[in-house]
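Bit of a strange request maybe. I'm writing a small parser for structure token strings and I need a real example to test against, not something I typed by hand. Could someone generate the tokens for this chain?
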Amino acid sequence: MTQSSLPETAAAGDLAAWITRPGGAETLAARMGIELLEATPQRLVGTMPVAGNKQLYGMLHGGASVVLAETLGSIGAAMHAGGGHIALGVDVNATHHRPVRSGIVTGVATALNLTPTIASYEVIITDEAGRRLCTARITVAPNTAEVIRRARS
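Reply from user aminoacidic:
Good idea to test on real output. This should exercise your parser:
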């Protein structure tokens, strides 16, 4: 994700517009219906509908929970890194505690470690009743766009 348009702290409306900006419909977060409610580099809150994100047995797909976690962590890391940086996930893991079949899930990402070279977040995903569905941890490396271009060549 590019960070250049994200301020250090942002209102939910600004972040929602950022995810769904022109070309944003091509992002996985937009396709899955992820909405950001609040965001600072230290704490992010987002929601995602269960509908449209289910696995074969009618429950929320575990991968969808991971997408929500990585989306929140990547945006937080990009905000932390500042302009001109791209936040790339280097590690993500998740433990799924219980299934959910309908409604909206909420992810709360809390920074565990924010340095110039690495950002780590714990993301707790709950159902509408506040029951924990998933605990995830994501580690993100903020890189400049130039570092990414050199790595591709």
